[in-house]
């Protein structure tokens, strides 16, 4: 069975599902961050698969954009995690409840 | 044939590494599993005739972002996650969401299978670095510029978030800023830049 477009989309869907469920299950902020990276990668896979299918380079260009956004997100997100750890001595998202009261 | 074997090999590797990433409670094990996912996806990009994206995937994700994450894990000296005890209903919500997403995935799988098949005629220029670069700096120049501004914002934000003032330093900075405001008589502007 030669892998067709739908095979790539199925792989991407499975990876995205694992990432989305991981965001809910994970408790520490770094784990959630890594699950978001996994979801971004699943989307990149669909971009590249469609780029191959339609023989258009646009999909691959937008993968590049997604990667830049992921890098920016890594810089700012990890900065926020470090600032949070400095104040609370933990990265558990349940400790980030200062707005609850 | 070789493409098929390689695809299923690396697809299995990617799914296995992704599952192990969600399963492990130690963040460092999760990070190493995520690197496995990135490498497997990079190999899949090669089978999709996108060598530039494959190289960039390794360089940016496995090389830059994950090193940053591992540094932060080491820096914070994290323990293993405590076992989940009170938010148990999250498991059911997560499982439900997962089932819905999987159903959607298989719906896509069936729908795309029904679509008319288009024979893949390998156009060798698509995916080569030259065609990507030519498109990037002609047709898609504006998005590239916007991404550049976004990265600049991320740099500034990262510096500001990581900066730490001691209490006397903070007071000094605030007083300096207030003095400057008073001199320039912009009394309506109450914002204090830290």
Short description:
The complex is a heterodimer of chains A (101) and B (194). Chain A is mostly helical and 101 residues long.
List the helices and strands and how they pair.
The complex is a heterodimer of chains A (101) and B (194).
Chain A: H1 5-25, H2 29-54, H3 58-88
Chain B: H1 2-23, H2 27-47, H3 51-76, H4 89-114, H5 129-136, H6 141-162, H7 167-183
How would you describe this protein?
The complex is a heterodimer of chains A (101) and B (194). Chain A has helices at residues 5-25, 29-54, 58-88. The model of chain A has no long low-confidence stretch (mean pLDDT 87). Helix content of chain A is 77%, strand content 0%. Chain A has 101 residues and is mostly helical. Chain B is mostly helical and 194 residues long. Chain B contains 7 helices and no strands. Chain B has helices at 2-23, 27-47, 51-76, 89-114, 129-136, 141-162, 167-183. The model of chain B has no long low-confidence stretch (mean pLDDT 82). Chains A and B meet through helix 1, helix 2 and helix 3 of A and helix 1, helix 2, helix 3, helix 4 and helix 5 of B.
Largest sheet of chain A: none
Strand content of chain A: under 5%
**Mean pLDDT of chain B, as a whole number?**
82
Helical content of chain B stands at over 70%
Total DSSP helices of chain A: 3
List unreliable stretches of 5+ residues of chain A: none
Gyration radius of chain A, in Å: 17 Å
The secondary-structure class of chain A comes to mainly alpha
Largest interface: A-B, 71 and 83 residues
Task: Kindly list the characteristics that best describe this protein.
heterodimer; A: 101 residues; mainly alpha; 3 helices; B: 194 residues; 0% strand
């Amino acid at each position: 069975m030669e892998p067709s477009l739908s095979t790539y989309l199925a792989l991407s869907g499975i990876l995205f599902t694992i990432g989305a469920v991981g965001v809910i299950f994970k408790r520490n902020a770094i784990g959630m961050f890594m699950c978001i990276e996994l979801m971004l990668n699943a989307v990149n896979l669909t971009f590249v698969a469609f780029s191959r299918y339609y023989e258009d380079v646009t999909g691959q260009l937008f993968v590049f954009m997604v990667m830049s956004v992921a890098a920016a997100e890594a810089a700012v997100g990890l900065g926020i995690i470090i600032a949070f750890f400095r104040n609370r001595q933990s990265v558990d998202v349940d400790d980030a409840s200062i707005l609850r009261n | 044939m070789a493409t098929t074997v390689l695809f299923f090999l690396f697809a299995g590797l990617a799914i296995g590494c992704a599952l192990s990433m969600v399963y492990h409670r130690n963040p460092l094990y999760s990070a190493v599993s995520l690197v496995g996912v990135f490498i497997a996806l990079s190999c899949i990009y090669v089978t999709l005739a996108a060598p530039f994206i494959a190289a960039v995937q390794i360089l940016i994700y496995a090389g830059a972002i994950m090193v940053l994450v591992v540094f932060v894990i080491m820096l914070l000296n994290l323990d293993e996650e405590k076992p989940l005890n009170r938010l148990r209903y999250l498991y059911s919500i997560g499982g439900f969401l997962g089932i819905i997403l999987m159903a959607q995935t298989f719906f896509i799988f069936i729908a795309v299978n029904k679509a008319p098949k288009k024979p893949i005629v390998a156009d060798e220029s698509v995916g080569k670095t030259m065609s990507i670069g030519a498109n990037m700096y002609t047709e898609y120049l504006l998005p590239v510029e916007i991404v550049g501004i976004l990265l600049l914002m991320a740099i500034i934000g990262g510096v500001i978030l990581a900066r730490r003032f001691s209490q006397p330093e903070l007071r000094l900075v605030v007083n300096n800023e207030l003095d400057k405001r008073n001199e320039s008589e912009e009394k309506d502007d109450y914002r204090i830049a830290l």
